[in-house]
Amino acid sequence: MNQHRNEVALPSFADAGTLVARQLKNFAKRHKVISGSYVFGILFLLLVGSGTKLTMDQMREYDHIMSTIDLQAEFEASEYFARTNNAYRQTKGWFSCDSLCQRNKRRMEDAAASLEDIRREGYARMSDAKSVAGIFSEIGVEEVKDSFWKYYNAGKRFAKKQSMWDAMFVGMRSMSRDESMAEYLLKMVVQVLINFSLGLVGALCVFIFGVWGIIKSYQADPFTAVVFFVGSCCAGFAFVSTYLFALFGATAGGLYSVAKVIESNARIEGGGGRRQNVQNHAHVY
What is the pLDDT of residues 177-206, one digit of tens each? Predict the structure, then answer.
């Protein structure tokens, strides 16, 4: 008796690519705000680029204002605060503070207030210098880019470190349950994708929260500030979503290739088995 098995064949690479493209098109139509933000972010990156060059007068005025910031005074105030804070902590008891401790505490508080005043004055002068350049200048754009890359790299470091811990704990659980190596690798792939998604999305949220402070330091007018803020947020979203899409796509493509190889090998083995059965029946008759 011949046994027929219903096998579901995987689509070809071309069909799979067409299916993915169709799904992306449908997603863009259904979520116009998300797709519009993505496109606006790409256009913002292309239009802004590295920022506008400063003129000679702007550069001269910017350097002049920046040179008025007293870095030496801030260094000395910071050093004095560190000494007074150390003295206060050494004389402070667990639940009490005697007269010597109270005196050191007042010195520490005065030093902290003096340091804060110096820093506030320095930030104000730096803000005046930034206002000469403008948020769309090469200085402003570079500062925003540095902020994004700082949080982006921190998110990737979080994902890598978390994935290392997951590899150890998932491996221990897999050994206790007698799971195969394929099941362990599949779990790790999923966990790595989750870690990178959490790390980069978290980094994007922190960047969005902090970029408004950078824009305010350039003393931009409300319209310019809002346009740059929205553009920066959309650009960060476009980059992170593109990176995650490429990561998920590469992983899915790798798993799909492995599945196609397994399917091809199964067909070859099945064909060889069927030919052997035909030959055996022929010998019997």
Answer: 666 677 777 888 888 899 999 999 999 999
Question: Is 5 inside a domain boundary?
Answer: no
* Domain span at 93: 58-134
Give me the sign of the Cα torsion angle 160, 164, 169, 175. Answer: positive
Contact by Cβ (8 Å): 148, 206: no
Residue 224, domain member (yes or no): yes
Do 200 and 112 form a contact (C-beta atoms < 8 A)? no
**Alpha carbon of 195 to those of 155, 191, 199, 216, 246: distances in Å?**
9, 6, 6, 33, 15
Residues 38 and 157 in one domain: yes
Cβ atoms of 26 and 19 within 8 Å: the answer is: no
Q: How far apart are CA 114 and CA 222, in angstroms?
A: 32
Q: Is pTM, for the whole model, over 0.85?
A: no
Model confidence at 212: pLDDT above 90: yes
| The last residue of a domain, from among 84, 104, 134 | 134
Instruction: State the sign of the Cα–Cα–Cα–Cα dihedral 155, 160, 164, 167.
Output: positive
Residues 147 and 278 occupy one common structural domain: yes
Three-state DSSP class for residue 244:
helix
